[in-house]
Amino acid sequence: MKRVVITGMGGATALGDQWDRIEAALKRGVNAVRRVNEWNHFDSLHTRLACPIPPLATPDHYPRKKTRSMGPVSLYAVRASELALADAGLLDDPSIKDGRMGVAYGSSSGSVEPIRAFGKMLDTGSMSDVTSNSYVQMMPHTTAVNVSLFWDLKGRIVPTSCACASGSQAIGYAYEMIAHGKQTLMLAGGAEELSGPAVAVFDLLYATSTRNDEPQLTPRPFDVARDGLVVGEGAATLVLEEYEHAVARGARIHAEVVGFGCNSDGAHITQPTAATMAVAMRQALNDAGLAPEAIAYVNAHGTSTDRGDVAESLATAEVFGARMPISSLKSYIGHTLGACGAIEAWWTIEMMKRNWYAPTLNLGEVDPACAPLDYIMGERRMIDAEHVMSNNFAFGGVNTSLIFSRIR
């Protein structure tokens, strides 16, 4: 088994695309939730809240030949990957094009506009809005393919269209690719674009927050007064690299990936199961060869939904006990769906490097139904952590757990 390290990180989020700006927002304790009045014409939609990213124009240096196959979700993925490659010192390195670098990337779905165009075709018979690129923009593996094509990467493609576990699965599968010697480098991450249909999915399940006139007070993961999630958008990419290769080229190493767990509840499409969540965490610990006591912080999935928060807290307490510090970064930028696992991995690693961890915003009183844990509330927490865990759980009962360590 080869060691796997992270040598590049980058992303596009509602709090910005540079860590300095993101860090400042986390320390100020502000979220990016706003009311989206454009959704007023959806007459049965209960929520009007979202966390959109700042407008991302196609950069001038992106060739039209390569961007015409991209909807917004792929553009976000490519931009995040460009920032990660630059951070790794690989952006202009021709060696990434020789087959040693692959791509593991995901999103909940492709872009929504071509779906609308095909819907119009079915409804009216008119193909006026369908183009030769419509399918490529909407296909489930659009992010993975467009990232690969943009940089002429010839390694393996691992699409992870797995709802809210897409980003974390991508990182985990990329880690396994390198650990088993199948690739030397991997671009791994997740992306999501904001749309009315993406929000309606959760709204129809009564899982969205309706504090439409109090956007700063929601979401509220683990709080007794939480009323649902807020959907966000964005992307993040990590450059994973075989350790000896990274050392040989003098790369800066952010962290090491040491453990990955992934399983399925095998029970219900939308209702999570604490027991199998706990199994995924133990799988990651076993993969890393670590005892539960070695983990100093857990980044929670923490969606602010009724059953999800309870199940996750019970699973975390079962594995680690009440002593575990835990917080949810979704309280700052909402639930970015297929991107959340990658964005949260990026931010968790940045916090580990600096020995502080952001609290869960709007968490004033923990729901008594949630398990007793050391919920980080109010102020950021100083923790000198050698090993941290980041968890994500998706529709279909898909559970993922990643462990990151300081480089030894």
TrEMBL record:
GO terms, biological process: fatty acid biosynthetic process
EC number: 2.3.1.179
Ranges of residues in domain Ketosynthase family 3 (KS3): 1-406
Keyword tRNA-binding among record annotations: no
Stored InterPro entries: Beta-ketoacyl_synthase (IPR000794), Ketoacyl_synth_AS (IPR018201), Ketoacyl_synth_C (IPR014031), Ketoacyl_synth_N (IPR014030), PKS_Beta-ketoAc_synthase_dom (IPR020841), Thiolase-like (IPR016039)
Entry similarity comment: Belongs to the thiolase-like superfamily. Beta-ketoacyl-ACP synthases family.
Name the UniProt record assigns to this protein: Beta-ketoacyl-ACP synthase
Organism: Paraburkholderia tagetis
